[in-house]
Design goal:
2 helices; rod-shaped
Length: about 90
């Protein structure tokens, strides 16, 4: 999953750079077309990076939830074992 995040971030940076290139580098294209394509590329790059960040946060949150579930299951299992030991001692 981390490789996918790195690829998405890299792609976002490349698309952002292409958008900046369209906006600020003199090319022999009609000015409105340059502005349109440059703006679209920049907006798409910002969308991708925000999407990557939100997916990363969700992934981290799910990892924490899994840790909590594993710890609670282990605690319940330990309590059951402790209860059996206490019952056997009586």
């Amino acid at each position: 999953m981390r490789l996918v995040i790195i690829i998405n971030i890299f792609t976002s940076i490349v698309v952002f750079c292409v958008g900046v290139y369209f906006l600020f580098v003199p090319i022999k294209i009609e000015p409105t077309t340059k502005i349109l394509f440059g703006s679209i590329f920049i907006i798409y790059a910002v969308y991708r990076i925000s999407n990557v960040i939100s997916k990363y946060k969700i992934m981290k949150q799910n990892e924490k939830i899994d840790k909590i579930h594993k710890a609670s299951e282990k605690l319940i299992q330990d309590l059951k074992e402790q209860k059996k030991i206490n019952e056997n001692e009586k």
